[in-house]
Structure formats: C-alpha cells, structure tokens
Write a structure and sequence with these properties.
six-stranded antiparallel sheet
Length: 250
C-alpha cells in the first residue's frame, strides 16, 4: 500500500519540536490532494523525515489524533481520517515557519485587492500613511468546500507593489508571500485573538447566522527594521476553530 508523503520542514530548535512537526504534518494533511494515500509512513520513517526522535514524533502524532485528523491502529498503522470534522486550534506560538504551516491547507479565493483607506483602529500601525493596499480572501475546507474563515490584509504602500496576487490565488498565506515572494525579512508577528459576533458581511461570507460566535484574529507583522508591513484581520468560524496557547516552563 502506498503511503502519504508529508512536506519537509526547517526546524527552529528554540521551539518545541513536537509542536512544529505536528503543525507541518497537519498542514500537509489538510492540503493533500483527493488522490493522496491515506496511510502515513511509520513513526520511524516520519521521525527520520523531520530529523527528530521517535518520541518527539509520537507526541506530534498524538496531537493530530486528539484533533481527529488521524487514527492509529495496532499492527495496521496510522491513517488520515478523510471525513473527520475538524475543529482547528488557533495557536499563538511558533516561528514564522510554523505560522505559515498553520495558515496553509485551505482552498483560497482572492475576493478583491487594491488601495483602501485605513480603518481608524489600524492607523497607529502605519504612521504617516492614510491609505494602504487591502487584500481580501475567503478560505474553504478543501474537502467539503465549506467556508472556514475570511481574511483582510492591509499592506504598507512600500511593500504592496511587489506582491504578486497569483501567489495568494494559489493559496499562499500572506506571511509566506511577504517572506518568500517579496523577500521581507520578518522579525516578529504580534497576535491578538478575541471573541466577536458575526456582522452581516462575515455572516454572508462564512454562511453562518448573523451574530453567531466568531474568533477575530489580528496579526501585526514587523520587518527587521521594526516597521509594520502588514496588519491581518482574520475572521474564523467559531464552530470550526478553538483557541490554544502553549506556555513553556523552564
């Protein structure tokens, strides 16, 4: 039986390895093609692929099993759950690589892009700038076609001309577009997550009742000079995502 081939990952040794591996493997699973095999390689082969110990790999797989993305069977192996209903955790921990991995996997539609006035609440991030370039995207579960979240990105005018919309249309997260497509050297991303109620636009795009629970994410991306290059506003369906924070004790 053929086995599923996960993407590679460059690990950051300052962060929990099991977490980085689980997020990378999760993105590979969610972004798989319909024809991809459902059987995963053995723990040993996965550990070799990611360059980690079998114990670390086992912990990463346990995370995915808890999420309902895989099932593990004695003597038979580990399999992707093709019809699993996914409640995805929004995690505020990770390197840029793990953030990119977490944002990957959904089918993406670029709704519109172009110059836009800055919302008053974002003005503090763009000193001396009254207008940015806005990108609006709708993300769907690749298996069911169900809308899962929609995103607005406000990009600094000095960066926006270098963005290729085709990268977004093929599903690249904006973080990956900025880093790999434009060449921005990202120094940090500040995340804020809060509970809100779906406004008319969000309810329509996500096909949920008006005033239903929404997870509202704000991500502020800084370059190596400490300047803001992107402010992302992402609206997640409250019934498809959960909020998770990992704290390291030293």
């Amino acid at each position: 039986m053929s086995v599923f081939a996960p993407d590679s990952l460059e690990l950051n040794r300052k962060l929990p390895l099991w977490y980085q591996v689980s997020q990378s493997l999760r993105a590979s699973i969610l972004g798989r093609t319909p024809q991809a095999p459902l059987r995963l390689p053995t723990e040993e082969r996965l550990a070799e692929h990611y360059g980690v110990s079998v114990l670390t790999m086992r912990q990463a797989l346990k995370e995915l099993e808890t999420e309902g993305l895989i099932s593990r069977h004695r003597r038979r192996g580990t399999f992707i759950e093709p019809e699993a209903r996914r409640t995805r955790p929004v995690r505020l921990l990770g390197s840029v690589d793990t953030i990119v991995a977490q944002q990957s996997g959904d089918a993406t539609t670029l709704l519109e892009h172009g110059p836009a006035a800055l919302p008053p609440e974002l003005a503090e991030h763009f000193a001396g700038v009254s207008e940015a370039t806005a990108y609006r995207r709708l993300r769907r579960d690749p298996d069911t076609g169900e809308a899962t979240n929609w995103a607005e990105n406000y990009i600094h005018p000095r960066v926006a001309p270098h963005i290729d919309p085709a990268d977004l249309e093929r599903g690249w997260p904006m973080t990956k577009v900025l880093r790999d497509g434009v060449g921005v050297r990202i120094s940090r991303i500040t995340d804020t997550l809060e509970a809100r109620l779906a406004d008319p636009e969000t309810a329509k795009l996500l096909d949920v009742p008006l005033l239903s629970p929404i997870l509202h994410y704000t991500g502020v991306t800084y370059d190596e000079d400490g300047q803001v290059v992107d402010v992302a506003l992402i609206h997640y369906r409250g019934d498809r995502f959960s909020f998770s924070v990992t704290l390291q004790a030293h």
